[in-house]
Amino acid sequence: MSLTQRFRTSLALLTDMYQLTMAQGYWKKGMADQEAVFHLYFRKNPFKGGYTLCAGLEDAIDLLQNFGFTEEDVAYLGSLKGSQGQVLFEEGFLQHLRELQFTCDVEAIPEGTAVFPNEPLLRIKGPILQCQLLETPLLTILNFQTLVATKAARVVDAAQGDTVIEFGMRRAQGPDGAISAARAAFIGGVKATSNMLAGKLFAIPVKGTHAHSWVMSFERESEAFSAYGDVFPHDSVFLVDTYNTLEGVKKAIAVASKMRAQGGELRGIRLDSGDLAYLSIEARKLLDAAGFEKVAILGSNDLDEHLIQSLKQQGAKIDTWGIGTKLVTAYDQPALGGVYKLAALKKDDQDWEYKLKLSEQLVKISTPGILQVRRFYRNNSPIGDMIFSEPQQVQAPATMVHPNDPTQRKTFQDDCTFEDLLVPVFQKGKLTYTSPSLLEIQERAARQVALLHETYRRFLNPHIYKVGLEAQLHEKKMALIVKFREEGASHKD
Ligand SMILES: Nc1ncnc2c1ncn2[C@@H]1O[C@H](COP(=O)(O)OP(=O)(O)OP(=O)(O)O)[C@@H](O)[C@H]1O
Ligand SMILES: O=P(O)(O)OC[C@H]1O[C@H](OP(=O)(O)OP(=O)(O)O)[C@H](O)[C@@H]1O
Ligand SMILES: O=C(O)c1cccnc1
């Protein structure tokens, strides 16, 4: 189900107020239809990682396809007053909004692609008023889903092929956070969610065990297990740690034997506290000795990729991982920090004027142009990404320059294959892209992560994947920086 259907309202006002005040400014100053190019990108891989998995495009597409102000939206805007009690948004502008239709060109990197700092995930070209209004909603969609998809990919990588289930709704950033996180976590590789609404909306498989309250609501732990086994003779996973974990495992085994005698079969047990390495090893021994080799051991309790890795190193016998809080809240880095920057403005019908935002730090200076990302491969392995401006032809051998350290360069010879990552999504406001299914996106993500050499995937000090600016683009950017710095220093307009 699409984003607008989920919210059941027009999303035209899902933006910051300043986008609307600027929009009125563009309209008033006759600039509303001036063609602009903006790029959405981030500056640092999250979680101190070596890669990022992009996600959220399908929701972004839905937002753009349904872009438009309803009478209710316009009435709300018309009711707003400025600091002197005057009408904030004037009637002519409101009429402009009523008639506004999405007419931009959009290119984007497909969901489930491995991406790196400074690369535009999305490029939008069209009337500046439209591009401006869309800054905030595009960022809120792509930033969060990209962040959670990346976290999920790391967790799934640490689990080394074990099943990972997303258990996070109760700790998510509100209901909408929980829903988007479930979608993004699935893209990152989790096999199922406990979130029933996400299951229904996105056809994500749903899975679950039972809570401590189930055990506590019976006189005895074994009664609770028996009762649950009666109700779900083939689909029970018993939570065994309410009182004493290993005693709980023994009771689970006794009940599982009775279930088996009656034609049922216990699916698994869940450990949710204590030393998960020790307890899972001991539980595995007890289960195997009783002939329950196939009963799974599910581990949960504030887990993340680092704990899973550590538990694996300790020989934990956990084969299914339930991951909640740390996954859906992206606990150790709760925001991606993606930005959306103006990169070019059409001066007249012919020429683009390149734009950039200056900063004291080179890393924060945006890149001007109409950007595309070319990924080079050798023997099917990605070896570097070159950001170039599309009006500029790139031919091998092609040299790129490190975006933050111009002394570092890399040249790709013509023995490399390449692909351009940004693909057309909208042309003049018309959708030209067919979104893959969520499962196809998940499969793409798994292939993309697998293509990355393990040095980029390790958690501690990963190798830095090379991303650079095509040499001519770099020169142009440097020349603009010098020009703008000089103008700034002499206070010229
Ligand atoms: N063998 C282990 N090595 C490293 N960390 C572990 C190991 N076993 C469990 N942990 C993690 O240690 C943390 C322990 O959590 P905590 O201190 O809250 O104890 P607890 O077992 O959950 O206690 P409680 O009974 O109160 O729930 C959890 O994040 C858990 O995943
Ligand atoms: O630990 P997470 O990765 O967030 O996974 C979800 C947690 O939610 C449940 O706990 P509950 O809400 O009962 O709280 P608890 O942590 O005290 O068991 C469940 O037993 C997991 O421990
Ligand atoms: O099904 C479970 O075991 C579950 C679901 C949500 C949160 N914690 C556990």
Automatic annotation (TrEMBL):
Enzyme Commission no: 6.3.4.21
Keywords assigned by UniProt, alphabetized: Glycosyltransferase, Ligase, Phosphoprotein, Pyridine nucleotide biosynthesis, Transferase
A GO CC term attached to the entry: cytosol
InterPro entries in the record: Aldolase_TIM, N/Namide_PRibTrfase, NAPRTase_C, NAPRTase_N, Nic_PRibTrfase-Fam, Nic_PRibTrfase_pncB, Nicotinate_pribotase-like_C
Gene Ontology molecular-function annotations: nicotinamide phosphoribosyltransferase activity; nicotinate phosphoribosyltransferase activity
Domain named Nicotinate phosphoribosyltransferase N-terminal: residues: 13-143
Catalysed reactions listed for this entry: 5-phospho-alpha-D-ribose 1-diphosphate + nicotinate + ATP + H2O = nicotinate beta-D-ribonucleotide + ADP + phosphate + diphosphate
SUPFAM superfamilies, sorted: Nicotinate/Quinolinate PRTase C-terminal domain-like (SSF51690), Nicotinate/Quinolinate PRTase N-terminal domain-like (SSF54675)
Pfam families reported in the protein's UniProt record: NAPRTase, NAPRTase_C, NAPRTase_N
Top-level taxon of origin: Bacteria
Functional description taken from the UniProt entry: Catalyzes the first step in the biosynthesis of NAD from nicotinic acid, the ATP-dependent synthesis of beta-nicotinate D-ribonucleotide from nicotinate and 5-phospho-D-ribose 1-phosphate.
UniProt-recorded name of the protein: Nicotinate phosphoribosyltransferase
Organism name: Rufibacter quisquiliarum
